Amino acid sequence: MLSATEILSMRSGQASALPDVCILMSGSAVTDDTGGRIVTYVSSGSVMGRLSWSGFHPVEKVAAERLGISVPYVVTLPAGTEVNESQRIVINGRTFEVKAVLCGGEWETARRVLCAEVL
Fold this sequence. Notes:
The protein is mostly beta strands. 10% of the residues lie in helices and 57% in strands. The protein has a single domain (4-117), classed as Bacteriophage SPP1 head-tail adaptor protein (Thrombin, subunit H, Beta Barrel). The strands form two sheets. The protein has a six-stranded antiparallel β-barrel with strand order 1-2-5-8-7-6. Strands 3-4 form a two-stranded antiparallel ribbon. The termini are far apart.
């Protein structure tokens, strides 16, 4: 069993390996003139983080007769960071859509988020 001090020490170690500023963006849907919906994103805060390739294979999709490739990424954020699947994360000018949040329970040392780049 890990003590609270040990968990805090591990979280501190993780935090020292988060080199990038991650801007958390929350979406808000509004109805446009034609009755459709437009989602706009505004900053809801920023935290330090790290972007890495997930190790999963890229996924090919065909939409509107165009081939699109989605490369899965993992964004690592400080433990307990509030983030959800309706948000986006901007890192170094690149925008990522949150696909899943991987919570680690009581021993979480960092919050890992599966994302796809918005191109």
